[in-house]
Write a structure and sequence with these properties.
- The chain is an alpha+beta fold.
- The protein has nine helices and 36 strands.
- A hairpin with a 4-residue loop joins β24 and β25.
Length: 646
């Protein structure tokens, strides 16, 4: 039920004797990480699938309540983003830890300064997307031993961390050092980094599907600070979240070529560990909201946080914004929200096509202290109603009694956001983030893959925007209402050398289980192999008792495939979905039936006409077999009369 943004303090313990807390947002442990400098890392972002409750999404505002403890010409790591705001409430990327590498799906969080994953020894961790981290399986793992720069465990052996958030979730564990790599498309070589190995988690951290968090905030334990201090990347990173329908996107760690028309806002790092911007004004439908600029400067000011789903304004600003939006959309009908526990502002009758929402909903503009403006389209402040087609709800809420203005992921949908930490500014550039991933992949030609062994579920991934179709647009797959006849996908497998020829049936069973469908629906079309590389083509058909796959089922299957959520045993090695295709329900049977009935009807008519013609001809012939009374006829011999004698 928590709606308000609780103010958070991060206690940074540099030395055990320090007692005054620092405003270090989410840092729990500080460690001196010195080094030299190098290039940028591009990581793809992906939104998660829809098991998250609406309540949990609403509370996904990762603010810590209590805590403890540049050179250019750098490389780049290219990693896709998975998941989306509506279905999961966050975006994730894939990180590989250890030797051999163990793969994890981590929430991209600009508000966190620690990266952590569940430890294999954790007794109170939830069930997540990937297996837990096994330190004993990594030849390069080392626990960070107790020292003057960290908080130590009770036995004074290892450094530990402890994080508690306003949404009543928490994470604690030990700190370890290991090789971290960023996927096969990364130019950046694997790097040593300090991360948290969880021994306990609670709240949303316990129930979420994602394995953990990748911390991109300001602080010594942030993955950004560690890579920058090593000289591995420049002091900048960028995020690009996909739109309302597609999700996905990209993340770049390091610098990249900036668009000439990118809008910048100053960001003062001395104020706090937050990525704050100097917001001064908001326009709705071209009209300035009657607010003092100071309303956006309360408490922590205006903060960008990628780990937060929606946006939250101070009471006065929220009231003015809500009134202006409702004034602009009077023709629309108010409808109840998807969650009865909240009084959401929802409006129906706007249609399902997101690209046409700007015809109904107004444009919003945010003006920064330097006079530059960021334009927001409707998808930057609305979320789609989950049960009422054509209805949308306001994704900006009141921040309780907190005067902080918090801008979450919804504000920057289809926007390239560059966190230029070196020049203390944040840049915004409106674009199609699904296309951006493709464009950046072309611009940053990757060097040979880093020396990392990918885990058993490794995949570079395909976002839905890059997948081929036969007549169904991507946006229709994710939002339309239609019937699917068959889903086809191709996958590649890289095994450890064992043959898969005898395990195809078993593989099909694991695929069916992972997609939550019947085994009878999965059929292998063909496969080819070369050494330990396999290329397999599969079809997914409707269940035997149905004639089609519903759009909801199809969406779930596609998100599972593109999100690479399939769990395959180690003997199947690593996999990658390289292509998928959706075909509408076949209409050939109904057409054939119609043609058959039509043909039968025509044949019946023809036969009837022929019958009538023969009947009339016969009648005519019968009529002509009788001659007139006065006509002359040939005389005929009479047959002898036979009498029967009694």
């Amino acid at each position: 039920m928590l709606r308000s943004l609780l103010s958070l303090l991060l206690l940074l313990f540099i030395y055990p004797s320090q007692s005054s807390p620092q405003h270090d947002y989410r840092l729990i442990y500080a460690v001196d990480l010195a080094g030299v400098s190098k290039p940028p890392i591009l990581l793809p972002l992906t939104p998660s699938s829809s098991s998250q409750s609406h309540r949990r999404l609403r509370l996904r505002r990762r603010h810590l309540l209590h805590g403890s403890a540049s050179n250019s010409n750098s490389s780049s790591a290219r990693m896709p983003l998975y998941d989306d705001l509506l279905s999961r409430g966050y975006y994730t990327t894939r990180l590989f830890i250890g030797t051999p590498a163990q793969e994890f799906a981590l929430i991209v969080d600009t508000g966190s300064t620690v990266t952590y994953v569940p430890c294999d020894s954790c007794q109170s961790c939830g069930m997540h997307q990937d297996p837990r981290f096994k330190p004993e399986k990594s030849s390069t793992y080392k626990a960070v031993k107790c020292n003057n720069n960290c908080r130590c465990d009770e036995k004074q052996h290892n450094c530990v961390y402890d994080r508690r958030y306003a949404e009543q979730s928490s994470s604690s564990g030990v700190l370890g050092d290991d090789i971290v790599s960023f996927g096969s498309a990364s130019e950046l070589k694997p790097q040593h980094a300090v991360f948290g190995c969880e021994n306990s988690e609670s709240g949303d951290l316990f129930t979420q599907r994602a394995d953990g968090i990748i911390g991109l905030g300001r602080g010594p334990l942030s993955i950004m600070d560690q890579l920058v201090n090593k000289g591995a990347i420049d002091n900048s990173f960028s995020l690009c979240y996909g739109g309302m329908d597609l999700g996905g996107g990209a993340m770049i760690l390091g610098t990249h070529e900036l668009p000439g028309d990118m809008v910048f806002a100053p960001s003062d790092s001395s104020r706090s560990q937050y990525y704050n911007i100097n917001l001064k004004e908001i326009y709705v439908a071209g009209k300035l909201l009657n607010l003092k600029p100071s309303v956006f400067d309360g408490n922590h000011g205006t903060v960008l946080d990628s780990g937060t789903t929606y946006a939250y304004l101070p009471k006065e600003a929220y009231s003015a914004f809500k009134s202006a939006i409702l004034e602009s959309v009077r023709p629309l009908k108010k409808t109840s929200g998807p969650d009865p526990n909240y009084q959401d502002i929802c409006l129906g009758g706007a249609g399902r096509d997101v690209s046409q929402l700007s015809r109904t909903f107004p444009q919003v503009e945010m003006v920064f202290g330097n006079g530059q403006k960021l334009s927001l389209s409707p998808e930057n402040y609305l979320f789609r109603h989950t049960t009422v087609p054509g209805a949308y709800c306001l994704g900006i809420f009141q921040n309780g009694n907190d005067q902080t203005t918090l801008l979450g992921g919804i504000i920057v949908r289809n926007t390239l956001v560059t966190y230029d930490r070196k020049n203390e500014r944040v840049g915004f550039w409106k674009t199609n983030c699904s296309d951006l991933w493709k464009n950046l992949s072309a611009k940053l030609s990757p060097s040979p893959s880093p020396s990392v062994y990918h885990g058993k579920n490794t995949s570079s991934g395909l976002t839905p925007a890059h997948s081929p179709f036969s007549g169904i647009a991507v946006k229709d797959i994710l939002s339309g209402d239609f019937r699917v006849g068959v889903i086809t996908f191709e996958m590649t497998l890289l095994t450890d050398g064992s043959s898969l020829k005898l395990h195809m049936t078993e593989l099909g069973a694991f695929i069916a289980n992972g997609l939550d469908i019947n085994f009878s629906q999965v059929r292998m079309l063909n496969f080819t192999s070369e050494g330990n590389h396999y290329h397999i083509r599969w079809d997914i058909y409707p269940v035997d008792s149905a004639s089609y796959i519903t759009s909801t089922q199809a969406k779930s299957i596609i998100l599972q495939l593109t999100g690479h959520h399939l769990k395959l045993p180690g003997k199947f090695g690593s996999y990658e979905i390289v292509e998928w295709n959706v075909e509408r329900q076949s209409t050939r049977k109904p057409q054939f039936l119609a043609v058959f009935i039509g043909s039968f009807a025509i044949l019946a008519i023809i036969l009837s006409l022929i019958g009538i013609w023969f009947l009339r001809r016969h009648q005519k012939q019968a009529l002509h077999s009788y001659e007139p009374v006065d006509s002359v006829v040939a005389e005929q011999e009479l047959q002898p009369l036979r009498t029967q004698l009694s």
